[in-house]
Every structure is written in structure tokens, then in C-alpha cells.
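To the team - iron/sulfur cluster complex, inputs and output below.
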Amino acid sequence: MTVSLDSLNNDVFMAMNDVAFSVDDVLAGIDAAATAGLAPIKINMVVQKGVNDHTVVDMARHFKGSGHIVRYIEYMDVGTTNQWCMDDVVPGKDIIAMISEAFPLEPVDPNYPGEVATRWQYADGTGEIGVITSVTQPFCATCTRARISAEGSLYTCLFASGGTDLRSMLRAGASDDELSAVIRSVWTARDDRYSQLRSSRTAGLRKVEMSYIGG
Ligand code: SF4
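Output:
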């Protein structure tokens, strides 16, 4: 299970997420999920320079030894509304250095080919973190993620400007084989590599909002 929590500082958290619930509510939800046996729990923290990067180590300290995995994510130009610029990005190597200074870290092999987060474990054996470096070290060449929006469109990239309408096919009575054939042909033809092409120019292009398709 994955939970979004960009800071343990309540003011920072609410300013970044524009939500009307507190850090304590999120932490209570994480505890309830753990009690219900939903493991592993991954906690995603998007790190934005000058906004929440001063809380990176606090987040590590809080979840170290809990069995949960904090995943630090470089700030990206998802959608068209977050006013992204490269100056707002804290490179993954700097995040690792910050945490490692307080709690020494060692690299760990990926769990599977194409895993998006690079894994690091605490040298004292009290758990691990992940770092997702899609800005400074894009991993499009090994990307295997397709996403379907709530409206039934298939997106082959988190930064796509459009998707393939599967809902209409379903409503018209398409068979499983017909759906499979369309999905296969879309996936086979894809050449997405947005993160390799990202620049200040591409940041302003129209892209699907993450809230449509999930992370
Ligand atoms: S930018 Fe698109 S192709 Fe590249 S890793 Fe992200 S989702 Fe995959």
C-alpha cells in the first residue's frame, strides 16, 4: 500500500497538498493499515527545494525501524498546474547524502527489473528507504507502467497528453480478445520517454493530470 505524506510538519504538509486533514490523520491511517495487515506500506514524499526539503531527515527518523518504507521522489512537472522548474528539484543524490549524514545508508539491489525506486538500507539494519530519481536519472528505458484513468482511457506514460478510449469499446460489447489486441497494439507502438526529454520547454506542454490516472 502506498500513502502520500510530503512532510511531518503539519503546516508544510497542508500547504503542499491543499487538503483539509492533518499529518496526525495520515499517521493514524498508516497505523490502521498496518494493524489490518496491509504490508509493506510505502510512504511517498515528493521533495521540493525550499518547501519541504528541510523535513527530509525528520521523515527518515520517524519511520526508521517501523517496517514502513519512505520513498523520496524528485519533484516533477506532473500535469500542467504545479509551475515546475528545474530549480525546485532536489537531486536524489543530495537526498541520500542528507539522510546518510544522520543515518548511514548502504545501496541494496532492486527487488525486480525495472523497479522505479533505488533502494537504500540503514547500515544499522533498521529498515530501508527508496529514492525515485525520474528527473536527474530517468528510467524510461525500463518503464513498464500502463495506467487507466477513471474514465477508462489507457495512458502509456505519466506525462502523456492523451490516452486510448477503452470505455467506449467495453460499452460497445468488445470481447476480452478484442480489448487485449488493442492494448497490445498500443503498448507495442509506444515510444514514451518523457523524462529523458524533460526541459523547461516541455514543462509547459499539456499533460494528463496525475489525479486522473494515479501515480
Ligand atoms: S516518463 Fe513516461 S516512459 Fe518515462 S518512466 Fe515516466 S511514465 Fe515511463
